[in-house]
Design brief:
about 250 residues; Rossmann fold; two-stranded antiparallel sheet; about 25% strand
């Protein structure tokens, strides 16, 4: 599928768009930290959209993949980019689906979109993870932040270490959700794995408890880890997104 671009004042945002003219519903998938739009879950959800008469947008946050603008270091900017994308499709309503950090971004965007967001799916949500990260820094990492403004840490997902900037941590403070109620006008489903060693499932449970939504559900799967890319994980995602669309259709007909 051909890459397209949104032109923002500070650079281009890369995206891929599956468009079916007969549908007024678009699923936007939000990637996790350091993930890009061609990941397994985003491709899986696009495939689901093609089979279920639903438009789909996969995209790279600024600073990631095919998009422009330096270091990836702003939750606020990525939420605003999500809102910007929705404004380019005024005739559409949206399902927001996100994994890990993308679940946090999706929840924040759903809160801003209100009635234009018709459903929310949060997978292994890393809500407020910048705040949690700041409390777990080693003395060396704290020193790097103080002296360099960033620190690097190794990850099993990439040969290169991830870089965390002080700016990223400070910006995350503006988007904290676990200390307040979040009012939504759409149904929401939260999925998390009990064997997630990166983001504890208790984080999703805490966020779920703070959501004020017309209808909501949570499933903590005893066998899933963080990535939710196993056959079982993808099956759970398919079931959740199908359930959300049925709920949308039901509301439409009432």
């Amino acid at each position: 599928m051909k890459i397209k671009y949104f032109q923002l004042p500070y650079g281009k945002i890369a995206y891929k768009h599956f468009d079916t003219p007969s549908s007024s519903l678009t699923l936007i998938y939000q990637n996790g930290f350091h993930s890009i739009m061609d990941g397994e879950k985003s491709l899986y959800l696009e495939s689901w959209c093609k089979e279920n008469n639903t438009n789909c947008i996969r995209w790279d946050y600024s600073g990631y993949g095919q998009s422009e603008l330096g270091l990836p270091d702003s939750i606020t900017r990525w939420v605003n980019e999500t809102i910007y994308i929705t404004k380019q499709f005024e005739n559409q309503n949206f399902i927001l689906a996100g994994s890990s950090m993308g679940a946090w971004i999706s929840l924040l965007a759903a809160e801003k979109l209100q009635e234009r967001c018709k459903a929310l799916l949060c997978i292994a949500g890393a809500f407020d993870f910048t705040e949690k990260l700041a409390y777990k820094l080693s003395p060396d990492q704290k020193m790097d932040l103080l002296e360099k403004g960033y620190f690097d840490f190794p990850t099993e997902y990439d040969e290169r270490p991830y870089r965390i900037t002080q700016k990223f941590i400070d910006d995350g403070k503006k988007s904290i959700i676990l200390d307040r109620k979040v009012k939504l006008q759409c149904p929401a489903i939260f999925l998390h794995g009990a064997k997630d060693n990166h983001i504890p499932h208790q984080l999703s449970q805490a966020a779920f408890g703070l959501i004020d939504a017309p209808w909501k559900d949570i499933h903590i799967d005893p066998n899933e880890e963080h990535r939710f890319s196993s056959a079982n994980g993808l099956y759970l995602i398919k079931g959740a997104i199908s359930k959300l669309k049925k709920n949308i259709c039901k509301q439409k007909n009432t």
